[in-house]
Amino acid sequence: MYSSQIRNDYTLADAFNALGVRLYGPQWTGYEVWRDRVENPTPTLEARAPLEDEVEQVTTQLSTKYREQKEVEGRKEIHRVNNEIDNLRRRQSDLFHQLHEIGNVHGSVVKDHESWKRFERAEGIFLKALCNEELTVICTSGEVVPHCWTVWQPS
Asked: Virtual CA dihedral for 154, 26, 109, 15, nearest 10 degrees?
C-alpha cells in the first residue's frame, strides 16, 4: 500500500474513504463505510426470471381467452373456454404464490449489494495493510494499535 510513502495522519474513516475513491473513482459514494451486509441478489433474481416469464405468457393467454369468451357460441364451447380460463387463472395464482415465496429483489437491494462489495474489497485491503504492518493505527490517546490479525479480524 502506498500509505508508508506519505506521512500524514488521517482518521480511519477518511483513510477508508480515500482508499475507496482511489479504487472506485466516481462509483465510490462515501457511504460504503456504514454499509450493512447485503446478500447477493443474483440467486433470487435467477429463480424469479423463469416464473416471471411464465406469468407473462399466462397473462397473454388469459387475454386471448377473454376475447375468445366474448365470441364463442353454444353451451359446450362456452364451457370449454371458461374451463380454460379457470385453469389459466389457477396457474397464474400458483405462479404468483411461488414468486411471493421466493421473495422480491428491489433495485435498492442490487445497489446496496454493489456498495457492500465495494466496502468488502476496501476493508480487505485495509486489513491486509494493517496485518502486514504497512499501515499503523494510532488511538486518540497516542497509543499504537497492535498489528495483530485477531485485533482486525472481522466478526
From this structure: 20
Render 2-71 in DSSP notation, one character per residue. GGGG------HHHHHHHHHHHHHGGG--S-GGGPPP----HHHHHHHHHHHHHHHHHHHHHHHHHHHHHH
Please tell me the total count of domains within the chain. Answer: 2
DSSP label of 146: P
| Helices 75-102, 42-71: inter-axial angle, 10-degree rounding | 170
pLDDT digits (tens, 9 = 90+) for 71-111: 888 899 999 999 999 999 999 999 999 999 888 877 767 67
37 inside domain: no
Between CA 131 and CA 129 the distance in angstroms is 6
Q: Which domain holds residue 14?
A: 2-28+107-152
